[in-house]
Specification:
With about 170 residues, this protein is mainly alpha-helical. The chain has 7 helices and no strands.
Length: about 170
């Protein structure tokens, strides 16, 4: 752990939490891609029962792989000395991922709460409830941890740089 005198929390922790969030989401998508069904019907509706090839390939395997890329990003954001172009790119990607996840969670939440989508959307009451109580908060949490990881990225000093300057742990 690396201390940051400007903040009581260690910036690297947010990157680790973002990494764990992405790994958990990837594992869930891989479980579904391999044939698991628990929870899929309330998130994907009729697609869960039909399982067309495009849905399994893109919506399950593809999203799972994308989540693993997000896990690597979270891990990079947790690194204490991520500097230069790589550091700026990782930080910018972290902000973008955080923004996309937050927007997804907020927009879908608002659409469901205000019934803006109307009856044209084929959403069951059970699907609506689980989306409001589980899936959207999950996206909001992911967005927040990626944004906090991006915010804290590069703030902490490595143990070797603290030892060289005499900064206590």
């Amino acid at each position: 752990m690396y201390g940051d005198p400007r903040d009581r929390t260690t910036p690297g922790w947010w990157g680790r939490i973002a990494c764990a969030w992405a790994v958990a989401f990837a594992a869930l998508h891989f479980y579904w891609a391999l044939g698991g069904s628990r929870g899929l019907s309330v998130s994907a509706g009729p697609l869960a029962e039909e399982r067309p090839a495009w849905f399994v390939a893109v919506g399950l395997w593809g999203v799972g792989l994308l989540c693993l890329v997000g896990a690597v990003l979270g891990w990079l954001l947790a690194r204490p000395l991520l500097r230069g172009l790589a550091g700026r790119m990782a930080k910018a990607l972290g902000w973008c991922v955080g923004a996309v996840l937050l927007m997804r969670g907020i927009v879908v939440e608002v659409l469901l709460l205000t019934d803006t989508a109307g009856q044209g959307m084929d959403i069951s009451p059970e699907q609506r409830l689980w989306t409001l109580l589980l899936w959207n908060p999950w996206f909001l949490v992911g967005g927040l941890v990626f944004a906090l990881a991006a915010r804290g990225s590069g703030r902490a000093k490595s143990p070797s740089s603290r030892a060289a300057t005499g900064t206590p742990s």
